[in-house]
Amino acid sequence: MQYRNLGTSGLLVSPICLGTMTFGAPVAEADAIRLTHAAMDLGINFIDTANVYEGYARFIGSAGGVAEEIVGKALLGRRDKAIVATKVCAPVGPGPQDRGLSATHILREVDRSLRRLQTDYIDLYIIHWPDREVPPETTLAAIEQTVRSGKVRSFGISNHSAWQMCEFHWLADRNGWPKAVSSQIPFSLLRREFQYDLDFCRKHGIGVTPYQALQGGLLTGKYRRGQPPPSDSRAAEKPDWIWKLDDPLFDKLEAAESLAREIGVPMSQYALAWTLTQPAITSPIVGVKRLDQIQDAVAAAAVQIPVEHLKQLDMTCPPPWRQHDPIRG
Ligand SMILES: NC(=O)c1ccc[n+]([C@@H]2O[C@H](COP(=O)([O-])OP(=O)(O)OC[C@H]3O[C@@H](n4cnc5c(N)ncnc54)[C@H](OP(=O)(O)O)[C@@H]3O)[C@@H](O)[C@H]2O)c1
């Protein structure tokens, strides 16, 4: 396993990050712990969770905490081998202080996350979503407190665009506050709206850890045009967590699959390997339900995508707009 720098954090992380959004349901606690141990035995040292994760049981405003508790149990006796990322912002209850990026919420949630994770520090504390009601300086000042108190080692941002990251960077510079070292965005062959924000991240030393690089399993070859989804797949078990299976989607999937066949790798590995070719990408976060899926993700880190394929993929799965570059074409 070749470890990579996570932005400017100084942390070396595996090129695949273990996602835990399915921990609790459909991945029961004992299986999730086994999966986490198997991932670590394969060399994965980077684990992504969030205060709200509780698998398929999640609804907006439910208390969360399930995945963090499982990760905490899985890491007993192995804490120093893992880089743990968790997040704050999404609602964890019905009350007005049960969500968002106020100092009150952040400082309360960081302690709850630490308790559930059974640790006294979080390697990477991530602002899960922007909160338009809270000035970014309020949020950053609270984050700075978490870092100064030793509860948090470095902080990251998720679901923010480049201008929002830029604002955080600018405020950090002006006030001597910590800078974000990572950005977690939805990004896959099928979903490239943040494509040009990657350039901002590359330029400013922000490691990008994209989520849903397999687009919830669509990019694994398990779904076939005109056929019902396999009964143990996300599309069958949790259809509101995955895109609709329609003809325009299958046009793209089939085009990408034919390229994956050319180099003799499974579509899942091809999709993850493609993600790793993109600027500033450190480690795609992969959700897994079974051991073979984590083994597959680890194998993807060694797959090389031919340069001609990258150009073809830009045609079949294009970013939302193409930047005209008169200098480099
Ligand atoms: N920051 C955010 O807002 C945010 C949002 C979403 C997710 N995340 C993070 O990103 C992680 C990944 O998200 P995700 O699980 O939705 O997306 P994903 O990684 O694209 O999809 C994971 C799903 O794909 C299927 N799969 C994985 N590997 C496979 C393989 N080799 N062959 C066949 N199927 C395979 C499995 O589903 P089935 O077997 O059930 O089909 C698995 O649960 C989460 O766990 C979480 O840590 C962050």
Tell me about this structure.
- This protein has a single domain (about 5-315), classed as TIM Barrel.
- The two termini are about 35 Å apart.
- A hairpin with a 6-residue loop joins strand 1 and strand 2.
- The chain has helices spanning about 30-40, 65-75, 105-115, 135-150, 160-175, 195-205, 235, 245-260, 265-275, 290-300, 305-315; strands at about 5, 10-15, 15-20, 45-50, 85-90, 120-125, 150-160, 180-185, 205-210, 285.
- The strands form two sheets. The chain has an eight-stranded parallel β-sheet with strand order 9-8-7-6-5-4-3-10, covered by helices on one side. It has a two-stranded antiparallel ribbon with strand order 1-2.
- By secondary structure, the chain is of the alpha/beta class.
- Helix 1 (about 30-40) crosses helix 2, helix 2 (about 65-75) packs across helix 3 (about 105-115) and helix 9 crosses helix 10 (about 290-300).
- NADP nicotinamide-adenine-dinucleotide phosphate binds near residues 158, 213, 234, 285 and 286.
Mass-distribution shape:
globular
Beta content comes to 5-15%
Give the CATH topology: TIM Barrel
- Over all CA atoms, what is the radius of gyration? 19 Å
Oligomer: single chain
**Sheet/helix structural class:** alpha/beta
Average of the residue pLDDT scores: 97
